[in-house]
Amino acid sequence: MPERAVSELLDWLSADRLPCPLDPALHDWLYVDKGSLTRRLTELAAGAFSVIPLHQAWLPLRADECAALDVPEQSEGWVREVYLCGHGRPWVFARSVAARAQLEESGLDLQSLGDRSLGELLFSNPAFTRGTLEACQYPSHWLPDACRVDGLWARRSCFRQNRLGVLVAEVFLPELWQAAAVTS
User: Fold this and answer.
1) Is there a binding annotation on residue 17?
2) pLDDT digit string (tens) for 130-152?
3) What is the CATH number of the domain that holds 115?
């Protein structure tokens, strides 16, 4: 899903900035569990977890991504979009980005991930530190057509290693909430 840079900025909120409390189960998925989402989805799916790559390319980053990565607007970066699936069904739409200059300087090869989980790579490398979890209701026009629904909750965090930042956004799809018995 190629995408041009968008000047739209979202109000990504840390848990302490939420205007009203969320359902405790939803709050847990968005903020409390700071471990690997891949691990959590694998457990929920009793091992039947998979990654379906949708798109990856060098593209201009969105304004909210540039701000989170602390790079100039319109910076080019590596953009990877995938579905994280349980039992072959998309449960999460994930968009991961890294600014080109910092990624090339780091030597990290995100282009060869294929159908492997980026979270697996980030959590297994102790050189990466994870920033604050933030959440918002993700704009439906940023989602693939197959899962374009208004009001879906998303979370994001930035993983840092030296100057490199890898911003990972995870949009929770309705089938996940059904599988996890969570009222979104």
Assistant:
1) no
2) 999 999 999 999 999 999 999 99
3) 3.40.1410.10
